[in-house]
Amino acid sequence: MNTAVLTDIRPTTGDRIAKFFLGLRGFVIPILALVAWQLASQQGAVQAYVFVPLDGVFKSLIEHFADGEIPINWLASLGRTASGFAIGGLLGVSLGALMATFRPVDVLVNPIYQAIRQVPLLGYIPLISLWFGNGEPSKLLIISLAAFYPTVLNTYEGLKHIDARHVAVGRIFLASRWQTFRHIVLPGALPSVFTGLMQAVAFTWLSSVGSELFFNPGPGLGNMMANGQAAFRMEVVLLAVIIIGVTGYVTNLIVSKIADRVLRWRNVR
Amino acid sequence: MPFETPSPTAKLSIQSLSKNYVIDQKALRVLLNIDLDVHEGEFVSIVGRSGCGKSTLLRLVSGLENDYSGTIQLDGKVINAPSLDRGMIFQDPSLLPWMTVRENVAFALVNQNIPKAEKDKRVLDLIDLVGLKGFESAYPKELSGGMAQRAAIARALVSQPKVLLLDEPLGALDALTRLRLQNELQRIWLQHRMTMIMVTHDVEEAVYLGDRVVIMDPEPGRIRRIVDVPLAHPRDRASPVLHAIRDEVLKDLTNGVVI
Amino acid sequence: MDDGSVILKTRVTAAPVALLAPPAPERKPWKRQRLAAVLSPIILIVGWTLLSRSGWFPAEIVVPPEVLWTTFVTYWSNGQLPDHLTGSLGRLFGGYLIGAGIGIALGTLMGVSKQAEAYVLPGFHILRQLPTVALIPAFIMIFGVGETVKLVLVAKATALPVALAAFQGVKGIPRTWLDVARIHRIPALTQFTHVIVPASLPVLVQGLRTALARSWMVLVAAELLVADSGIGQMMEWGRQTFRLDLVLIGVVITGLIGFTLDKGFRALERVLTRGSRKQNA
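The joint structure predicted for all components is written out below.
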């Protein structure tokens, strides 16, 4: 019998280079799309209106950063999102907890909550506009609602579905009501509450931009887009879209890092 | 089965215990006329086919369920609610996933008026006893099945119960871990000499650990027979006497049908 | 725990327990539950009626219910409301079908082919970061203000989540199922129709449902901004002419459509996925 030949299975430099180039395959389509865009912009003056040359977009990025247009609008949108998130999230978690704890609240509020939730959020804009005007309060209301919906639901679900085994553990060791809440109910519901907050982050950002598109006064990335569209300046619109995408991605990343830290005991598979 | 009069040394005394569940307005008899006395420091194993009510029996003794007829007494006191003098271990370790091993074990003392220093010492001593030293700050997700069950054992013991109830504690473990933990259980039991009642599916385990093996019949759950295991601890797994008793219990359980 | 799936069987009752609140009486009579569910809506409607009668607010702000009803009847019988409805629903289903088709094709392709995954998936994740609502102005500039832009927006809002669901559905198929098919030397096409499709269906259908809800929201938003018909346009027109009754009717209809689409899809989901095991996606 021959002994088995042990081969070194560690990746060689060649393997690593191959892997690197294979990883680049994902960039092929985006690059092709950008090239197509650039070619389209060179077809004539009319096309260049819609398909603004990429160097134009880059130039306008520098320009609008320098003249403050981007920072002002960006910070305005961020601030609005943060306030709406704080208001809606706080109210949402409180209401969800109340509904899960007190049956009368559940019975009275749940049907109404379910009913209002059926209407797509931005569909409320005409109504809110007539009732509360087109200013800052209306935007804040929409954004707060965006944080409110998912936090109510997930807080409620989290508190309602505490693992019965964990509750039994509390009973065996004669934990008081407060101790049961503090050590079993609260941590047990936390992952669900966080899910709600994470959805709220994504949803508030989107509705912040959305509400700015509809309610014109005041700075914000949505307004920047709306004005860009009105003036037919595609490069401004595109810049706003890119900033919105990057910001959404980064905030999402930050929040999920926070969740991973706070819920580090959670078994993610 | 001869009726046993409660002996003066009996710690746990169960007399004509019956329990019904009501399902769809039909009474389901889970336990019927159970009589069992468990002496101080005794290790009693309970075996039986599924549905013989052995887990229900344990839950009644723990006080997690209290709707029964008959009497269950510990040291002459009627049992109808959980108490720290009866510890319980489930097949599922039921550790709280958001607490470290140390916090999980300490949770058993959550409502006890014990000075913090003593609490800490007891917790660490027990973690040491079950062989989890070095894993005090580990979360349950970082533990293997066997380690998690060790932590659960430590948690059940830290409140210094008089009786430890074990509901198929090793049922979900792989064969090797299982053997190792059987030895651990025996070592802990010998060290503390507390009363232990263990429900198990594994006849070998029941015979290896138990002073007596209670064989139960299903529908309704009742005691069929109690087999003595007259061997000193710690025991030798290879002992022919042990094997003979195991075969007898197995035969009884399967009604003589060879499986 | 590593073997958590095995030890989930527990002696403790597995039903969710009411916590802190004293245990609710077991199973209230059915009629009382029904009553409880309609109690607060009734209170709301009665309160609304009383408020509109109180004279504290002008009738244009708090529209009395009976006015809402007459407006609804008028607009229904003169054909305007049905026109808006068919306009919106036509766009929704048109765009949805296109988007779902693209999404299913791309997602499945990425699921079965490593090459396709490597080429397409990263671009996908980039696109996913751009909320559809934020794309409305750019799309209007590219596609104009006609029907095309709404179809494209709905299709975009549909295609991404559907593709992702199809991809995850195929990826989530347990290896052993495919191994079984290979061991029995089942032809690739049969493997596809008999293993891959049914096994990935539950996840896909879930994705299709969320996509429908999202597309509806995007369409309403798009109609608010740019349309000559549709429920969204009707609401926007009501806003400009200060007709709160029209706006409210629009809001209610939008909600009802969203609700019906979701319920209908859930019913379909139950039929389609009967017997197929829920995947841990």
